[in-house]
Write a structure and sequence with these properties.
Layout lengths: L1 E6 L6 E6 L2 E7 L1 H4 L9 H11 L8 E4 L7 H11 L3 H14 L2 H9 L9 E4 L2 H10 L6 E11 L2 E9 L2 E9 L4 H11 L8 H7 L8 H7 E3 L5 E3 L13 E2 L6 E2 L5 H7 L11 H29 L3 E5 L6 H4 L2 H4 L4 E3 L8 H14 L19 H10 L5 E2 L2 H13 L4 E4 L13 E5 L6 H10 L8 E5 L3 H4 L11 E4 L17 E7 L4 H13 L3 E6 L10 H10 L4 E4 L2 E4 L2
Parallel strand pairs: 1-4, 4-5, 6-13, 13-14, 16-22, 18-20
Antiparallel strand pairs: 1-2, 2-3, 6-7, 7-8, 9-10, 11-12, 15-23, 16-17, 17-21, 18-21, 19-20, 22-23
Length: 573
């Protein structure tokens, strides 16, 4: 049985393919289109998934899409009538809904075949149920509480429930216009970061300030006694006017959500190009603190309500790795699982798992602890491409490669590392990475000058051999997806300054045996005594590279010292 799961007409469009419950492939459309957070129909990701499965669209049994236009329909109509939502906003919503229900039509156009040749049954799976399934059915838990929390999907922003075996039960939800994701996004815009997906910048900025605006922000978002929350809608535009979202050429853009009332509360919003002041940093700190408190508020009530020790979390807000790192400390849960694609791209997989496990009642797949479901290239394909571009390179055997790259790292090189299958999710996890010696005090400035050209306040992450976590971090945990930030032991700050953030934390990625990335870090440890590498995504203000061509292009237009494409090395020397 083949199930094609898709997230479409929404930011972070994506596709995955399951064969009898096994994940054969999964990828975001942005990796192919080269536009960040690409929205629309994920045609290229679908083609990739079918190619990996070795089938064509006529052999797919089921197609799941992580949107259900009929969900909360009466509430949508009531809200629109009650609040006189703008005609443009209503038209946008209706057009989007019509697209969601015409999946077979889209597929017939993409593959140039009549609709009646597509035998697959189409299933619309509600957005947050897709999120919940992406976390619980991929987790190691037979039973767990579940939280899905983001901006909006199918008129809902938050959903809580429980999972047991191959079933999920929804307990409660938060409906439009109330949303933790909207709260965080609107403050992100207020702080002068206007692009879709910029929320991580506020998270990176937060350690530079003090939480001086918590009381003001708790007027904006109010915690309720039932363990949920509500917004004071006067601080936002979306509740009454609607907010226009555009997907021009697949590039998602959302107009400002905050109202003039927020500026009366906090002062004028930061304008484009305006200096980041201490006040802005203090507001970022306060936004992060209130968001963390809200997450813990929801989770503690959920734990008491269910009595369960395990929790699975998904949704855009679940990408807040700083909050995630405090969950076990600040709540009564004992174990937590967050998938590699906790954001909306993960709903492609989640919708497929909801069908396979919850609806069809099939046995669950083994827990997912690696994200390597994307595209790959062989040494032969890489060599053929490099020769066609007249690029000098040298091919090494496995042992020589590890030794050569480890020596280059010790010598201070900045290295593009392209290995195996690309990751599914927004973070580089050792297959499409730029890597550097974490002991270098100048590494952060070096990377920003040579390649990344990003804000100086944003941290870089440590990849660490999992058996050395207790030696370097205050907490010991298996964190394969960089989904949690933990304090680094004070005595280690001086050893690994390049990956120690200003507040003494690091966004942890544990690396286990069985991967070439592990072998490289181990060889680096043997040479230096440090079982860690600085790891950042292989890109330059673009989606993470997906192909040897994109990796080479990035290498050539930046000042990377070395490019490693599988067993081939390209050097500037």
């Amino acid at each position: 049985m083949y199930i094609l799961g898709i997230n479409a007409y929404h930011g972070d469009s994506s596709a995955c393919i399951l064969r009898n419950g096994e994940v054969i492939a999964a990828s975001e459309e942005e990796r192919f289109r080269r536009i960040k957070h690409w929205a629309g129909f994920p045609s290229e990701a679908i083609k990739f998934c079918l190619q990996e499965a070795g089938i064509d669209i006529t052999q797919v049994d089921h197609v799941t899409i992580s949107r259900d236009p009929s969900a909360n329909l009466h509430k949508k109509i009531l809200h629109s009538v009650k609040n006189l939502v703008s005609v443009k906003a209503l038209k946008d919503r209706l057009a989007n809904s019509r697209k969601v229900v015409s999946v077979k039509g889209e597929l017939s156009q993409i593959f140039n075949i009549p609709e009646d040749q597509i035998q697959a049954e189409i299933h619309n799976i509600e957005h947050h149920r897709s999120h919940m399934a992406s976390a619980f059915f991929a987790s190691p838990f037979d039973e767990a509480a579940i939280l899905s929390i983001d901006g909006f999907g199918d008129f809902t922003s938050t959903m809580i429930g429980t999972g047991k075996g191959n079933k999920i039960e929804v307990i409660d939800q938060v409906i439009y216009p109330h949303s933790a994701g909207i709260f965080y996004t609107s403050l992100t815009q207020y702080l002068g970061f206007p692009h879709y997906g910029d929320e991580y910048k506020v998270m990176g900025l937060a350690p530079y300030g003090e939480p001086k605006f918590v009381n003001e922000l708790k007027q904006v978002i109010r915690f309720k006694d039932n363990g949920l929350f509500e917004l004071d809608t006067k601080y936002f535009k979306h509740a009454r006017e609607g907010v226009s979202m555009s997907w021009e050429n697949g590039d998602p853009h959302i107009e400002p959500i905050f109202s003039e009332e927020l500026e009366l509360l906090l002062g004028p919003a930061r304008q484009k190009g305006e200096e980041l002041t201490q006040k802005h940093k203090d507001i970022a700190t306060s936004v992060q603190k209130v968001t963390e408190e809200l997450i813990f508020h929801i989770l503690n009530h959920l734990q008491k309500r269910t009595g369960l020790e395990n929790v699975c979390i998904a949704g855009g807000v679940a990408q807040n790795s700083v909050a995630n790192g405090k969950i076990l400390e600040k709540t009564t849960f004992k174990h937590v699982y967050i998938p590699s694609a906790g954001h909306d791209a993960g709903t492609a997989l989640g919708s497929a798992l909801w069908l396979y496990n919850h609806i069809l009642g099939k046995d669950r797949l083994p827990p997912i602890y690696n994200a390597y479901t994307g595209s790959k290239s062989s040494n032969e394909e890489i060599e053929s491409y490099l020769k066609s571009q007249h690029i000098d390179y040298k091919r090494y055997n496995d042992e020589e490669l590890i030794e050569t790259v480890a020596n280059a790292l010790v010598d201070g090189a900045v290295i593009g590392w392209f290995q195996g299958r690309a990751e599914f999710g927004p973070r580089a996890l050792g297959h499409r990475s730029i890597i550097v010696d974490p002991r270098r005090t100048d590494a952060k400035d070096l990377l920003n000058a040579k390649i990344k050209r990003r804000e100086s306040f944003r941290p870089f992450a440590p990849s660490i051999l999992e058996e050395y976590v207790p030696e370097y971090f205050e907490k010991t945990d298996k964190v394969p997806f960089m989904e949690k930030v933990y304090p680094i032991k004070k005595e280690k700050h001086g050893e690994i300054p390049a990956v120690t953030h200003v507040d003494g934390t690091g966004r942890l990625q544990t690396v286990e045996k069985g991967d070439r990335y592990y072998d490289l870090i181990e060889r680096f440890r043997q040479k230096t005594g440090t079982p860690i590498l600085l790891n950042t995504s292989f890109n330059e203000n673009e989606p993470i590279v997906n192909t040897p061509k994109e990796a080479l292009d990035c290498y050539l237009r930046t000042q990377m010292d070395l490019l490693v494409l599988e067993n081939c090395i390209i050097s500037r020397k």
